[in-house]
Write a structure and sequence with these properties.
By secondary structure, this protein is an alpha/beta fold. It has one domain: TIM Barrel (Alpha-Beta Barrel), CATH 3.20.20. Helices cover about 35% and strands about 20% of the residues. The chain is built from twelve helices and 13 strands. The strands form two sheets. The chain has an eight-stranded parallel beta barrel with strand order 3-4-5-6-7-8-10-12, surrounded by five helices. A two-stranded antiparallel ribbon has the order 1-2. Strand 3 (about 60-65), helix 2 and strand 4 form a beta-alpha-beta unit. Helix 5 runs parallel beside helix 7 (about 200-210) and helix 10 packs parallel to helix 12. It is an enzyme of class 3 (hydrolase). This is Beta-xylanase. Belongs to the glycosyl hydrolase 10 (cellulase F) family. One of its GO terms (biological process) is xylan catabolic process. It catalyses: Endohydrolysis of (1->4)-beta-D-xylosidic linkages in xylans.
């Protein structure tokens, strides 16, 4: 819709004024000086995550809850001040944008894009192709449909062109394909897989997205890629094969839904091996859940659990910082009240997975990220 995204931000010279960063000219610390508009740059704290991350060219993102943005003042302020990239938690999903076939409702997503532009944030588009949150006219479960194979193919093509063109120039990274493999590394037998008779839909989706917006970085996004294993290996082979076919894939998104119940993954080596294929990599949906009380879903059962959570957050951020191709680090929201975790993991109950508490006060998990970024000046500058 508007200006194309220009490659990565270079931190500009900044001066400290009364605890706020003041910016040279009209450019903010994490915007590209060339593309910045003449409107006054919003100030944000010098010790905010976004200001600290800008010094190494890293974008710190958050998933955004469309109902809170604009209506909840504290939520809105934190979104603007702390993060330099935003992802619509739900507002860009197919069920949201085309619940009625042929009728597009872009309002919530457009509001987020406008907010991002005003606050000098980049936007991760999430997601063009998934087996969840599909409109009912297409599929109620992602695995069955009343449409013919040819109709499914035509619907996907139309959807990708309509959505990517609508946001053309506004999206930094698109999650083109989300969660196409199961944890055994087998392709999910979704309506897409069935319509194409295999995984050929993935290459088509990337090609269509690239035609619709040649400047957007196109990502494959999935969970549990953090651990070396059948799934991570399957996605690695997929990327190799897409590259061999000259399919326009530019990055791999590691969702990063972690839990203190499980050991910490060999994340950095997985980031490195995908980067060695010439891919950008990104942490796209990070949260670190722990077991919590059934009647207080964000209160850990074990009083020591927050220390383990801090360690997982810190190690994940440091893994990204250490790999130059890792261009953004995005927690999946920031306030525990809005997290998907307690509703999804209820037996046993898990929660407390984000970096701000239910009252939107920063937790120890926020502070470790802040410290790691403050101490990250030796990390390679991306861009
Ligand atoms: O956080 C999202 C939640 O509000 C939705 O109800 C849910 C529907 O499946 O999707 C959640 O986000 C998911 C993301 O889009 C893809 N990776 C897993 C995320 C957590 O389920």
């Amino acid at each position: 819709m508007r200006r194309p995204w220009l490659p990565l931000a270079v931190a500009t010279a900044t001066a400290l004024l009364g605890g706020q960063l003041a910016f040279a000219g009209s450019a903010t610390a994490d915007s590209d000086p060339v593309s910045a508009k003449p409107s006054p740059a919003p100030a944000y704290p010098a010790d905010s995550l976004r200001a600290l991350a800008a010094r190494v060219g890293l974008r710190i993102g958050t998933a955004v809850n469309a109902d809170e943005l604009g209506s909840n003042a504290k939520y809105t302020q934190i979104t603007a001040e702390q993060f330099s990239s935003v992802t619509a938690e739900n507002a860009m999903k197919w069920a949201e944008v085309e619940a009625v076939r042929g009728t597009y409702t872009w309002e919530k997503a457009d509001q987020l894009v406008a907010f991002a532009e005003k606050n000098r944030q980049l936007v991760r588009g999430h997601t063009l192709l998934w087996h969840n949150q599909l409109p009912a006219w297409l599929s109620t479960d992602g695995y069955t449909t009343t449409l013919s194979n040819e109709e499914v193919k035509a619907a996907l093509k139309e959807h990708i062109f309509a959505q990517v063109r609508h946001f053309k120039g506004d999206i930094w990274q698109w999650d083109v394909v989300n969660e196409a493999f199961d944890d055994n590394g087998q392709p999910r037998q979704t309506i897409w897989y069935k319509a194409w008779g295999g995984t050929g839909y993935i290459a088509d989706a990337f090609r269509w997205a690239h035609q619709a917006d040649p400047h957007a970085l196109l990502f494959y996004n999935d969970y549990n890629l953090e651990f070396t294993g059948p799934k991570s290996n399957a996605v690695y082979e997929l990327v190799k094969s897409l590259k061999a076919q000259r399919v326009p894939i530019h990055g791999v998104g590691f969702q990063g839904h972690l839990s203190t119940q499980y050991g910490y993954p060999d994340l950095q080596s997985n980031l490195e091996r995908f980067a060695a294929l010439g891919q950008k990599v990104a942490l796209t949906e990070v949260d670190v859940r722990t077991l919590t009380k059934p009647d207080a879903v964000n209160v850990p059962v074990d009083a020591l659990a927050p220390y383990a959570q801090e360690s997982y957050w810190s190690r994940s951020l440091k893994a990204c910082l250490a790999v130059r191709a890792c261009i953004s680090f995005t927690p999946w929201g920031f306030g525990d009240s809005y997290s998907w975790v307690p509703g999804w993991f209820s037996n046993p109950q898990a929660g407390a997975a984000l970096i701000y508490d239910e009252q939107l006060n920063p937790k120890g998990q926020y502070q470790v990220l802040q410290q790691d970024l403050a101490l990250a000046s030796g990390a390679p500058h991306r861009g």
